[in-house]
Amino acid sequence: MIIIHPLLGPRDSSEFIYKGDAALINRPDWQASDALDQFIDYGYLRDNPAGLHRELWYHEQGDRSWLVVTRDTTTHEITQVELARDVARRQGRST
Amino acid sequence: MAYSGFRILREALRGHRGWGPAWRDAAPKDHYDYVIIGGGGHGLATAYYLASVYKQSRIAVVEKGWIGGGNVGRNTTIIRSNYLLEGNEPFYEFSLKLWEGLEQDLNYNAMVSQRGILNLVHTDAQRDAFIRRGNAMILNGADAEFMSTEQIVAKYPFLNVNNARFPIKGGLAQHRGGTVRHDAVAWGYARAADRLGVDIIQNCQVTGLRIENGTCLGVDTTRGFIGATKVASCVAGSSSRIMQMAGMRLPIESHVLQAFVSEGLKPILPGVITFGAGHFYCSQSDKGGLVFGGDIDGYNSYAQRGNLPVIEDVCEGGMAIFPNLGRARLLRSWGGIMDMSMDGSPIIDRTHIDGLYFNGGWCYGGFKATPASGYAYAHLLATDTPHHTATAYRLDRFRTGHMIDEKGMGNQPNLH
User: Fold this and answer.
1) Which pLDDT belongs to residue B1?
2) Closest-approach residue (CA) in chain A for B403
3) At what angle do helices B89-106 and B182-195 cross, to 10 degrees?
């Protein structure tokens, strides 16, 4: 698989480490009243869809940026690549 | 019709006109006591033990494709019970004992071959860990022997014991491990279940679970609604897709695992060797092909095919330890979809929905578990209590902190 890195252009996927579902950006609030339930959900449960999947890839053999890659799990076709930083900022996770 | 040597002779003299289909092509009825989703090895074994051991009837197995077309026909056919942890080892040893009696039990030649499995060791720390594992196996009634490099060279003279990075310093052997003809396992269980009245319904894909007031009433399929007192999901690889129909999210990611076979060769490899440090394991099939594999590709996938970097990695591992491999040509490679669970161990449990049961999360260890998985699932379905070898395989163990993490990797499915 070739991942089109937003800064570096086309890179082979073997340069990256795969983390998993991009929902992992949204770490729960540890002070929430149902924090335990939220963290069990966050740590252990996954949507695991057959089809489009937004997922985190880490460019370990490159610029060490985290990417959010949108990929079809039934064909491995990649349709969108963003910097995880930009996604997190858009969701108000970071400044 | 029972199969026997006499029967073969008789049919040989009569032009083989007396063989019937091994199982009926059943059409779905309106209602069953048990509907098992998934006609793979585990689903068929569940149906067989439900009927034979637990004396249940009105059982159906619904399969979206054909019998033998899923993961039961895509694995590398190895059986073993070399686990460490208390929650696992009794279960896998129970499975190995069932394999030993399987062919007489099913009246079917599944080509169970206890040719032995050897896990190679390269460092002092790894030797200590494997001896500990061997002791855990012996404590649970399995067999284990630590083999010296000299003993290994006597049995496998072609292994490269002096690899610079991974010199062979011994190995943990389980002589009762080995291989089984995987298609024959599916066909054997299907035929044996059918003979006990189980309906095997092929080309019947489940499209929905009908749930009302917290109770599962049956399954919607491409061949219409089938009512059921108990619905049992048994579709490892696609578990999330089925359980999503019940609104459930699972502690599972689906990943692709590739496997490879060389052209047919004369006998060279007498047992199964595993080179865990180099992501490579290999056995030789009775047809002569070297059957080998390594790690999963490592990203979520339902595609049943992998990518080239893993093929390169597996072949490099093979060449490091088994240099003869380089003279054989790779004939075929293929991929199967694994339920990779959060702790690397399976789940056999009830769900919070009445009448809905779950079996999955087998990672890449499902084939060896086929008989015990079916037996334990049948026990759960018939009695609503877990089988004594499968009490740890609970769906809620991630909430309660009772993970069964053989490798100590934590909740990262692609590392198990």
Assistant:
1) 81
2) A44
3) 70
β-strand pairing of A66-72 with B224-233: unpaired
Angle at B74 between CA B73 and CA B80, to 5 degrees: 90
Q: Which of B346, B364, B336, B374 is nearest to B71 (CA)?
A: B336
Nearest-CA distance B378 → chain A (Å): 26
Give the residue extent of every domain in chain A.
2-26+36-90
CATH number listed for the domain at residues A2-26+36-90: 3.30.2270.10
Interface size between A and B, measured as CB pairs under 8 A = 65
Residue A2 confidence (pLDDT): 97
Q: List residues of chain B with CB under 8 Å from any CB of chain A.
A: 238, 240-241, 249-254, 298-303, 307, 309, 342, 398-399, 411-414
Tokens of A24: 């992992």
CB A89 within 8 A of CB A65: no
Token pair belonging to B299: 């990203």
- Residue-level pLDDT at B321: 96
Tens of pLDDT, residues B128-146? 999 999 999 999 999 999 9
Examine the pLDDT at A94 and tell me if it is beyond 80.
no
**pLDDT in the model for residue B372:** 98
Instruction: Quote ipTM for the complex.
Output: 0.96
How far apart CA B67 and CA B95 sit, in angstroms, is 22
Q: Which portions of chain B are predicted below pLDDT 70?
A: none
Domains and CATH numbers, chain B: 26-77+182-251+343-415 (3.50.50.60), 113-177+253-341 (3.30.9.10)
Predicted confidence (pLDDT) at residue A92 exceeds the cutoff of 90: no
pLDDT at A41: 97
In which band, very low, low, confident or very high, does the pLDDT at A93 lie, cut at 50, 70 and 90?
Answer: confident
- Closest C-alpha to B43, from B373, B320, B352: B373
Residue A71 and residue B299: Cβ atoms within 8 Å? yes
Q: What is the pLDDT of residue A63?
A: 96
Q: What angle do CA B115, B119, B123 make, to 5 degrees?
A: 155
Mean pLDDT taken over chain B: 97
Rounded Cα distance between B254 and A50, Å, is: 9
The DSSP call for residue B396 is T
- Residue from the list A46, A47, A76 with its beta carbon closest to the beta carbon of B301: A76
Going by C-beta distance under 8 Å and a sequence separation of 6 or more, which residues neighbour residue A31? none
Neighbours of B326 (CB within 10 A): 10
- Asked if pLDDT for residue A95 goes beyond 80, the answer is no
Out of A40, A46, A75, closest to residue B253 by CB: A46
pLDDT tens digits, A56-78: 999 999 999 999 999 999 999 99
* SS3 label, residue B252: strand
Taking the CA of residue A90 and the nearest CA in chain B, the distance in Å comes to 25
Nearest to B414 among A13, A18, A43 (CB): A18
Q: Is A12 exposed, middle or buried (0-12, 13-18, 19+ CB in 10 A)?
A: middle
